[in-house]
Specification:
Length: 195
């Protein structure tokens, strides 16, 4: 059995402005860098294989909290939000012609215009995920984490999610025989660095 932990990257200016980032390569903001520098990985995860999405915000988060450069994996790149990248969900939701839906109403095949569906994200990430040979930590994005956690929890993007993706936490799943299950403890907080 392999353990796979995921952590969401730190804040960017677009996160704080509630803009959809997707694959747009937005860096961490200065506040995120300062906040992340107060944290370190918990002991069992300091020695795990370390990967990050190739997007700057994930790579930099990994370097700050792990104190080392991650390997990158294209499979960990955020979900493609197509023409909605850079826009605000609240504005899209206010325009009935946009076709925007809350995540609880997506199902696996909902796709932003010119973007990617959760099923397409899963098809992209699962070969890489099940290719892990030892415990692995990935610094990535909420879209990637939602898809993996949805599979692990049996959630079909159909109603409230049974999990909330928060920052500065590791969300752990177990990989066994091409199956995912939620590990216990499921969520591990990062450790505060000593002054």
């Amino acid at each position: 059995m392999i353990k796979f932990a995921m952590m969401r990257h730190g804040h960017t200016a677009w996160n704080r402005a509630h803009q959809i980032q997707g694959r747009t390569d937005i860096p961490l903001d200065d506040q995120a860098r300062a906040d992340l520098s107060a944290f370190a990985l918990p002991a069992p995860w300091q020695e795990a294989d370390l990967f990050a999405s190739p997007l700057m915000r994930a790579r930099e988060t990994a370097e700050i909290v792990a104190g080392r450069a991650p390997k990158t994996a294209v499979a960990l790149t955020e979900m493609d939000w197509g023409v909605w990248e850079g826009q605000k969900g609240v504005d899209l939701k206010a325009d009935p012609a946009s076709g925007f839906r809350d995540i609880e109403d997506w199902g696996w095949d909902y796709r932003p215009p010119e973007g990617e569906s959760p099923r397409e994200v899963w098809d992209r990430i699962s070969p890489w995920l099940f290719g892990r040979e030892r415990d692995t930590l990935a610094i990535c994005h909420i879209g990637i984490m939602r898809v993996i956690l949805a599979k692990a929890h049996g959630w079909n993007f159909d109603g409230p999610a049974p999990f909330a993706v928060k920052r500065n936490r590791l969300f752990v799943v177990e990989l066994q025989n091409d199956m995912l299950k939620v590990a216990h403890p499921e969520i591990i907080r990062l450790e505060r660095r000593s002054a």
